[in-house]
């Protein structure tokens, strides 16, 4: 039986950005980054109001097609809960279309906010973390960003075929604890890059030798991220997607080469254009200054513990 949320309930979801792939773990590895959008949802008697502040305020729709709103509605639907009306306020800082998982964060934030409302009504109806991974991954079809924003830390994610005809793909993830010596620096270029566009640059088939190369590096990445940061350079090598997308990401490709020449394990964050550097020492001042002089934002980030609702 569907239960109805009373008007006047409020929750805020604080949802982290994420980085996907980490070099060799294409569509598999991810990490939650301590850089947060906030979504405040209040139940009302009727109607929908949406306000967006900050990143994307002028570009995203302020109505029912807004990704956060669709995620809230999906979360309520799966929990079997109905709201007469909703007031949604999004305070965005995660840059859009830069390879920092903004669309996955929006889906996770909306679902988590819905789950917070559901929990206020009846904790027994609350969705599990596994359900949040499934539902948020369904929005984009890729669990590497979404599961990182749900679970926090680094993640290994995977998918399996639908369990019923016409059912959704099944998504799963396991969390890894990132070694405390690893520092994360994101170099964010000003230009945007659409994930859908750069996915279209990838070949349908790859040589067996390249697949084998990436299997070894992705397995090594799990070791390097959790226990052996000294292996990060080898563990972040890739042959499956970075070179193939390079012509769309010239600034990114040049900065990755520069950082790697300095012994810093740098990769494309998600589908780019952000560069993700994983280091055990501070980024050299000279490189930081040079990146900033070229117009890149340089962000020193913590690993996040995943979405929080209060
Ligand atoms: N907070 C948000 N609210 C609504 N829509 C969003 C939000 N964040 C991202 N999006 C949508 O997702 C698009 C970016 O997705 P994508 O190209 O996959 O890049 P990203 O790497 O940032 O996820 C935006 O152009 C916008 O349409
Ligand atoms: N595995 C995906 C990750 C896309 O991440 P995004 O943050 O760029 O949306 C891919 O490489 O396409």
Description of the structure:
- It is an enzyme of class 2 (transferase).
- Its main location: cytoplasm.
- The mean pLDDT is 97.
- The protein is 35% helix and 27% strand.
- It has helices at 67-79, 102-121, 129-140, 143-151, 195-199, 208-226, 232-235, 242-245, 250-261, 285-293; strands at 3-5, 10-20, 29-44, 47-54, 81-83, 85-92, 154-160, 170-176, 183-188, 265-268, 275-279, 297-301, 308-309.
- The chain has 2 domains: 3-177 and 305-309, Ribosomal Protein S5, domain 2; 183-301, Alpha-Beta Plaits (2-Layer Sandwich).
- The strands form 3 sheets. Strands 2, 3, 4, 6, 7, 8 and 13 form a 7-stranded mixed beta sheet that branches. Strands 10-11-9-12 form a 4-stranded antiparallel beta sheet.
- The protein contains 10 helices and 13 strands.
- The two termini are 26 Å apart.
- By secondary structure, it is of the alpha+beta class.
- A hairpin with an 8-residue loop joins strand 2 (10-20) and strand 3.
- Bound molecules: adenosine-5'-diphosphate and ligand LJ64HWYM.
List the helices and strands and how they pair.
Layout: E1 3-5, E2 10-20, E3 29-44, E4 47-54, H1 67-79, E5 81-83, E6 85-92, H2 102-121, H3 129-140, H4 143-151, E7 154-160, E8 170-176, E9 183-188, H5 195-199, H6 208-226, H7 232-235, H8 242-245, H9 250-261, E10 265-268, E11 275-279, H10 285-293, E12 297-301, E13 308-309
Parallel strand pairs: 1-5, 4-6
Antiparallel strand pairs: 2-3, 2-13, 3-6, 3-7, 7-8, 9-11, 9-12, 10-11
Helix pairs in contact: 1-2, 2-3, 2-4, 3-4
The structure holds adenosine-5'-diphosphate and the ligand N[C@@H](CCOP(=O)(O)O)C(=O)O.
Adenosine-5'-diphosphate (ADP) is lined by residues 37, 56, 60, 66-68, 90, 92, 96-103, 106, 194-195, 270.
């Amino acid at each position: 039986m569907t239960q109805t949320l009373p008007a006047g309930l409020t929750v805020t979801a604080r949802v982290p950005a994420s980085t996907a792939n980490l070099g060799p773990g294409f569509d598999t590895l991810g990490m939650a980054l301590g850089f947060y959008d906030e979504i405040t949802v209040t139940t009302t008697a009727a109607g929908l109001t949406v306000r967006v502040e900050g990143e994307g305020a002028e570009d995203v729709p302020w109505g029912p097609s807004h990704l956060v709103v669709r995620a809230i509605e999906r979360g309520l639907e799966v929990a079997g809960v109905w709201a007469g009306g909703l007031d949604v306020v999004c305070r965005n800082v995660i840059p859009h279309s830069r390879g920092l998982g903004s669309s996955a964060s929006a889906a996770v934030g909306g679902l988590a906010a819905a789950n917070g409302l559901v929990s206020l009504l009846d904790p027994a109806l609350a969705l599990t973390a596994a359900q949040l991974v499934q539902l948020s991954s369904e929005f984009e079809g890729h669990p590497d960003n979404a599961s990182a924003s749900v679970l926090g830390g680094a993640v290994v994610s995977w998918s399996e075929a639908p369990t019923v005809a016409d059912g959704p793909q099944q998504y799963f993830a396991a969390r890894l604890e990132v070694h405390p010596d690893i520092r994360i620096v994101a170099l964010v270029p000003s230009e945007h890059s659409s994930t859908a566009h750069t996915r279209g640059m990838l070949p349908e088939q790859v040589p067996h030798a390249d697949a084998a190369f990436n299997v070894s590096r992705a397995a090594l990445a799990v070791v390097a991220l959790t226990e052996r940061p000294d292996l990060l350079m080898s563990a972040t090598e890739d042959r499956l997607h970075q070179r193939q997308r390079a012509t769309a990401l010239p600034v990114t490709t040049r900065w990755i080469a520069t950082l790697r020449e300095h012994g810093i394990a740098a990769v494309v964050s998600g589908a780019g254009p952000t560069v993700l550097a994983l280091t055990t020492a501070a980024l050299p001042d000279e490189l930081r200054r040079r990146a900033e002089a070229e117009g890149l934002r340089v962000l020193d980030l913590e690993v996040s513990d995943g979405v929080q609702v209060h």
